[in-house]
Structure formats: structure tokens, C-alpha cells
Amino acid sequence: MSKSSGNVRDPVSYEKAFGPDVLRYFVMREVVYGLDGDFSEERLTERYNADLANDLGNLVSRVLTMAQRYCGGEVRAVPQEVPQALVGPQAGALWAKISRLLEPVIAQAGDLDFKGALEDIWAALDTANKYIVTTAPFSLAKDPAKMPEVDQILANLVEAIRVIADALEPFMPVTTQKIFEMLNVDEDTARKPYGEGLKPGHKINPPVALFPRIEKPKA
């Protein structure tokens, strides 16, 4: 950036337009700490829509909406690794990915590898989104006999969101607190290992939009 060439971007204006978490996420995801990087509003918007609106925001919205619709906003099972015969090969992948998420993220953050830590968190988000597609709780819920399976799938997913939010907090603290409020968890519960946080009977709150998609103006 150079003031003389007039290409300096005002970070305050972007913070006001997108919020502090979005700007913080973009810089840490796009730029290796200590090195130069490129910045453009177009690229910022692309990251916002792809990573934050589609991946993170859509996951939280879909899961919590299904939890309200099919379970009355209540956790009805203990998160566990569901037998693959019931819900396909992605079942074990969710447990393996989320239960091992925090340790590498903490290590990478300690090494100032913020980009690598966020890539690991987004890999976990991708696993959770694929788990929804593979298990299809919205289809299973049409059969009353399969509701226990739906309860299990959603318990796993809600718990996964809790752990992902815990891992994401150093990078996006405002967003994380919003997720914790939707999950209705206190500080102690928010930090527990996967499978030990949300218990049967726990009530979660309805979802609120975290990152409304930014539509590009039509030419």
C-alpha cells in the first residue's frame, strides 16, 4: 500500500460495512502472517459469501432450524459415532474430524499459522455440511419410525457446531458469542470436548442469520 499512489484502503470503512469479524477473518485466511498479501473489496465479498454465508452461516442455520422443527429445539440424544450402516460412510468422519479439531488449531495458532488454523476449521465445517447431505435428516424425518435416528444425527451436528465455534473464537469472537447464545451454552459447557457438552434435554434457541449473503449489483 502506498499513500502517494492513492491505493490505501480504509480499514475502518470496511469494519463498519462488514463488521470486525469479517475483516479479521479475511486477513488471516488470505495472508500468511508476516508476509505481504493482496486485498480487494471483490475478493473480500467472495470470501464472505463462500466461507461465511454459505459454509458457516448456512450450517448453523440449517442445523438449528432442523433442531427446532424436528426436535422442538431440544437435544434428544448423546452425541456419538452413529453406525455407518444407518447413515452412510460420512458418519464416522464427523466424529473423527470434530473430536480432533482443537489440538491442531491451538498448535497452529501458537505458531502464528492463523491461515492454517482457519483452513482446519473450515475442513471441519465441510465435513459437517457433507454429513447433513449424507445422512439427510430432513428425509428421514418423514418416517416416524426413524425419528430416533434423526435425534441422533442432529445431536451430533449441534455438538459439532459448539466445538467449531469454540475453535473459531480467537479468530471471530463476536460471531462465536452469537453461536453460543443460539446454542444456549455457558462458558464451561462451551469448552468441553466433543461429545461431553450438550446433554439430552438441553434446549437451544432459534437460529438468527449470521451472514446474510451479499448480492452483487446487476450490470
The rounded distance between the terminal residues' Cα atoms is 29 Å
From the coordinates shown, what is the CATH architecture? Orthogonal Bundle
Structural class: mainly alpha
Topology as a string of helices (H) and strands (E): HHHHHHHHHHH
The coarse silhouette is: globular
Characterize the biggest β-sheet: none
**What is the CATH superfamily label?**
Isoleucyl-tRNA Synthetase, Domain 1
Number of domains: 1
Q: In the CATH scheme, what's the topology name?
A: Isoleucyl-tRNA Synthetase, Domain 1
* Contiguous runs where pLDDT drops below 50 for at least 5 residues: 1-8
The average pLDDT value, as a whole number, equals 86
**What percent strand?**
under 5%
Sequence-ordered SSE layout with sheet pairings:
Blueprint lengths: L10 H8 L1 H11 L10 H31 L12 H4 L2 H10 L2 H9 L3 H22 L1 H4 L6 H22 L4 H11 L3 H4 L29
